[in-house]
Amino acid sequence: MTLTVQFLSMLSMAAMGVWLGAALDTYHRFIGKKHSFDIQTAVADFCFWTVQALLVFYILYQVNFGEVRIFVFIALMLGFAAYQAMFKHVYNKILTGIIFFFKKLFAFLVYVIKTLLFNPVKWLLHICRRFAMMIVLTLWSLIFYLLWKPLYFVLSLLGVVKVAKKGQPIFGKIKGFCDRLMKKK
C-alpha cells in the first residue's frame, strides 16, 4: 500500500467516523435511547450497525481495496471523537431544524389534501344527501296527496273517520264499522 493510499484511507475513515457519529445521533433521535431490552430495538440496532459496517467497508474497499489495518480503526475512532467534540452540537441543531421543517411540511400537505380533496367530497356528499331528502319528501308528499287524501276522503264518507276520532279501541272501531255496513244492506 503506497503512502498516498494510506493517507486517503485514513482521511476517508476519519470522515466515516464523523459519518458514524452523525448517523448514530440521527438513529437515536428517531428510535430513542432505550435502557431496557426488547426484540424490536434489538432488530433495529442490528440492522443499523450492519448497514453502517457495510458502508464503512464499501468506502474502505473503494479507497484501498478493503485492506483493514490498525490505523483504519484508529482513524474511525479519531473521526468519531472529532464529531463528538466539534460537530455534534451543530449537527443536532441542524437535525432539529430539518425535522421541524418536515413536520411543518407534512402538516401543510395534510391541510392541503384535506382542503382540496376531503372537504369538496364532504360537501358533495352533503349536497347529495340534501337532494335525496328533497326527492324523498317530494315523493312522500305526492303519495300523501294522491293516495292518502283520497283514501281519507272515502273513509270519511263511509264514517270510519268519525269512529276513529271518538277514541274507541281499534277492535271496537272495526266492529262498529262492520255492524254499520251490515245495517245499511
UniProtKB/TrEMBL annotation:
The chain crosses the membrane at residues 39-61, 68-86, 98-119, 131-148. The keyword Transmembrane applies. InterPro entries: YabQ (IPR019074). Keywords: Membrane, Transmembrane, Transmembrane helix. This is Spore cortex biosynthesis protein YabQ.
